[in-house]
Amino acid sequence: MARKKVTRKSRRRGRNASAEATLWRGLLLIVGLVLAVWGGSMLLRGNSGTADDANAAPVVGAPAPDFTAQTLGGETVHLKALRGKPVVLNFWATWCPPCRAEMPMLQQYYTKHQNDYYMLAVNDAEPEAQVQAFISQNGFTFTVVLDPQRSIVGKYRIQGFPTTFFIDDKGVIRYMHVGMLDETTLAAGLQSIGITP
């Protein structure tokens, strides 16, 4: 008789485990569907198919979205006003390890070619004092742009840091790289805007 109780308990456990597994599968399916719908809506918002520059994600071959912002030095920079010379536009943050890792190389190339292009490093809404301390501590001399409201980040539809745009002297995006630059990708980007590294 004891043997039958063990068997019944085993069957109950088996049924409970099966019901629990079915419940988890159902929950995972619902979560997956919610994420798929959300992801699809994000893609549609990022590429609306309209000619409205304010809503379109920037792409290679298209004009770079214009902006006016304050630099870390307190000056006003207007992207359109820089036409006539190529621009390397880098989006970064002090909390981003790949951003921090690529900056010495960006500085090295900028030092070598600073008469050939503008280097604008757009910071992601960090406190000005924190950005100033990081830039000073590392001796970076390129122009740092502050984006406290993330309006430039929004215009460029930045999804990850770092992201770098290479803009030619007419204001057209010629190369774009998401993620940390290495020497090969930096050289390719510079060549796309007419700079021989």
What does this structure look like?
By secondary structure, this protein is α/β, with parallel strands linked by helices. The protein folds into 2 domains: 1-46; 68-192, 3-Layer(aba) Sandwich (Glutaredoxin). The chain has 5 helices and 7 strands; from the N terminus they run αβββαβαβαββα. The strands form 2 sheets. Strands 5-4-3-6-7 form a 5-stranded mixed sheet, with helices on one face. Strands 1-2 form a two-stranded antiparallel ribbon. Strand 6 (163-167) and strand 7 form a beta hairpin. The chain is elongated and about 75 Å long. The N and C termini lie far apart (86 Å).
Shape: elongated
Q: What is the chain-wise order of helices and strands? A: HEEEHEHEHEEH
Strand content: 15-25%
Structural class: alpha/beta
What is the average per-residue confidence, as pLDDT, rounded to a whole number?
85
Highest-level CATH class of the largest domain = Alpha Beta
In the predicted model, the low-confidence regions spanning at least 5 consecutive residues are 36-53
- Spatial strand arrangement across the major sheet: 5-4-3-6-7
Largest sheet: 5 strands, mixed
Please count the beta strands (DSSP E, at least 2 residues each).
Answer: 7
Share of helix, binned: 40-55%
Determine Rg (CA atoms, Å).
Answer: 25 Å
Q: Give me the CATH architecture of the largest domain, please.
A: 3-Layer(aba) Sandwich
CATH topology of the largest domain: Glutaredoxin
Overall tally of domains: 2
Q: What is the number of helical segments per DSSP (H or I, 4+ residues)?
A: 5
State the separation between the terminal residues, measured CA to CA: 86 Å
State the fourth-level CATH superfamily of the largest domain.
Glutaredoxin
